[in-house]
# Entry
Amino acid sequence: MNPITLFLTAVFALVGAGIGALAGPWAGAPFFVIAALIAASLKMANTWQRFVVLRAGNLLGVRGPGLFMIVPVLDNVVAVIDQRIQTTAFNAEEALTRDTVPVNVDAVIFWHVHDARQAALEITNYREAIDRVAQTSLREMIGSSMLSSLLSDRRAADEHLRDVIGAKTAQWGITVMSVEIRDVAIPVALQDAMSRQAQAEREKEARVILGSAEAEIAAKFVEAATTYADHPAALQLRAMNIIYETTKERGATILIPTGLVDSLNPAAALVQAGVLKNAA
# Structure
């Protein structure tokens, strides 16, 4: 009983009791009758509720939100429908994918009732029906999907489930807003195999990248060697830079071969280069 009906019923009952105490039971009886009629006929629906009312077994209408009256005995409220967005969790255990891999899938569906009359009269229990339809559709989707697509493209699977379930529940006055797959569990042995495969793919990519880098470095070395061969002064400057880089740290002892020292002499370097050219 809603608060307004309860208040009015209590008021008339108290007035009837007071008058009955002062003027006799028959004087207060009408107030008790009015209190009973208010309790049986005055209803209130919240803003998210719809009351489905039958009169003598036939549909009278859908009432709400707000206050409304029914005729006691003749009218009957057969269903109170909540039109807020609701969620239903469902799953599929040991369902086989298209490539015969057993998986456990957990999902949740978001839905709401858009037609209270259909939800109350077209099906016995629409909440249970939604759960059954969702489980059946999930198993059908798993059976027609490859494991790789199920794991990598969940958005497409969510949209497919929403469309399939929504088409089945629309005739019950129910709108499916979205379906979200929360988890896809695969056997442990298959997880290990997929992990090894992924690791092998990463190692393959790393080796390819390393080989490409080695080829580029070798090409640069060939280019540098050609430049140094044609320009001895460049080789001398490079040698001086190497010595400088190695002596930057304090407290380090560097042993330099005499040949390297001679190569730093410009005259000696030019003579050596001329000798090499004449020998060639």
Q: What stands out?
A: The longest strand covers residues 102-113. Residues 271 and 277 are 10 Å apart (CA to CA). Residues 188-230 form the longest helix (43 residues).
